[in-house]
Specification:
Layout lengths: L4 E6 L4 E7 L1 E6 L2 E5 L3 E8 L2 E7 L2 E7 L2 E7 L1 E6 L2 E3 L5 H15 L5 H24 L2
Parallel strand pairs: 1-9
Antiparallel strand pairs: 1-2, 3-4, 3-6, 5-8, 6-7, 7-10, 8-9
């Protein structure tokens, strides 16, 4: 029986995280959920927010977009449209992206454009929330 989990986070661009960890806290559709080794198998939707990862007694944080998580005993796989370590978030760049998206939403857009710009805005807001919460 292992006392760690293998956490893998995959975005359309790449595998952005792949490490053994002690615990993961995910922003699920019904609220936060803590995942420890030997968790019951589960497939769930994740919402944009913050993932907390505990490894060797230290907490690490990532901003993630919407997606899905599969939990199977000692393995957590997350498929998401965005995953960025809190330390790697460029707050000024995220703020600029937020302003651009908000301005675009004031324009006359097709439904598809509204969906794309709204997703971009959600990514920016998520990054800003995680970065500002972890500033210290």
């Amino acid at each position: 029986m292992s006392n760690t989990l293998r956490l893998e986070i995959v975005t359309p661009e790449a595998k952005t995280y792949s490490e053994n960890v002690d615990m993961v806290t995910l922003p699920g559709i019904d609220g936060e959920m803590g995942i420890y080794p030997m968790h019951v198998p589960l497939m769930t939707q994740v919402v944009a927010g913050e993932i907390s990862v505990r490894k060797n007694g230290q907490d690490y944080f990532l901003a993630i977009g919407e997606g899905f998580a599969e939990i199977a005993g000692d393995h957590v796989s997350i498929l998401t449209d965005m995953a960025i370590k809190a330390d790697d978030i460029d707050e000024a760049r995220a703020e600029e992206a937020k302003k651009r998206a908000e301005a675009r939403l004031q324009e006359k857009l097709t439904d598809e454009e509204v969906a794309m710009v709204s997703a971009s805005l959600l990514h920016s807001l998520t990054q800003l929330n995680v970065k500002r919460r972890r500033r210290g």
